[in-house]
Specification:
254 residues; mainly alpha; single chain; 2 strands
């Protein structure tokens, strides 16, 4: 039971009462706090970094520039074409926001907000709205829905294919939600499980006069943490890249 409590303490969200006035209560959780911090980093930290003239911050400014150029040339441009300049700010914000939330879970006393299904569901909902609104703006409402079913399909297949295409839009965004959630929470569960091995086998090691469990577990945790750092960047890229693909497909029916 103690091990279960330790695991739940680090994985589950913690909700505090932020404001209470009679029946009105506004909850504030640890994941909400991490989202607020990530938003402040994007609103205040990145503009301050970019406008700074400090030579010490030059490598970080170059890193941000490289990422934005990569998103423009390799992610947004090939999928959205002539609309790249209009949509690049959104995709850059999406990438850095997810990245900031992912990295927050690697900081002591931090938490990974993207390890919460509600957070990834909200991000997936923004993708669902974006691809539909952008498709309607580009093709018109009637043209957008008429192009959901490819031309040349027999008329009697329309009642079958049209609902399937609508369901496909939902499943694509749902897959984004689950993929980001599972990858981010999975690594933390592995880390906590490895740390718990120290306590599980601690009594056995003491009885045998051995102390090998802790060093091995710590080395494995360090390896997984380095892997988590890579996964934080990778999952932010995958979410942004797939959003660009879905949006481009909605805008260009061919």
């Amino acid at each position: 039971m103690e091990l279960k409590a330790i695991l739940e303490h680090h994985i589950l969200d913690h909700i505090w009462t932020f404001f209470s006035l009679g029946p009105l209560t506004l909850p504030f959780s640890k994941h909400v706090l991490m989202m607020v911090i990530a938003a402040l980093v994007l609103l205040i930290g990145l503009p301050a970094l970019i406008s700074s003239k400090s030579p010490a911050l030059a490598p970080f400014r170059s890193m941000v520039e490289i990422i934005v150029l990569f998103l423009r040339d390799e992610v947004v441009g090939p999928n959205l074409g002539h609309k790249t300049a209009a949509y690049l700010p959104y995709f850059s914000t999406l990438f850095f926001f997810i990245l900031a939330m992912n990295l927050a879970g690697l900081v002591p006393y931090g938490a990974t907000a993207t390890g919460n299904l509600a957070v990834t569901g909200g991000l997936a909902l923004t993708t669902f709205v974006l691809l539909n609104v952008s498709g309607m703006r580009e093709q018109g409402v009637v043209g957008y829905f008429s192009h959901l079913v490819p031309k040349g399909v027999p008329f009697w297949l329309y009642p079958l294919l049209f609902p399937m295409e609508l369901l496909g839009m939902l499943t694509k965004t749902f897959a984004l939600c689950v993929r980001l959630f599972a990858n981010m929470i999975g690594g933390h569960i592995v880390v906590l499980s490895l740390i718990s091995l120290i306590f599980i086998f601690g009594g056995l090691n003491t009885a045998l006069g051995l102390g090998v469990t802790a060093p091995i577990a710590v080395l494995m945790v360090l390896f997984v943490m380095l892997l988590e750092l890579f996964v934080a960047f990778l999952q932010a890229y995958i979410f942004t890249f797939l959003t660009a693909i879905f949006t481009g497909a909605a805008m260009h029916p061919h």
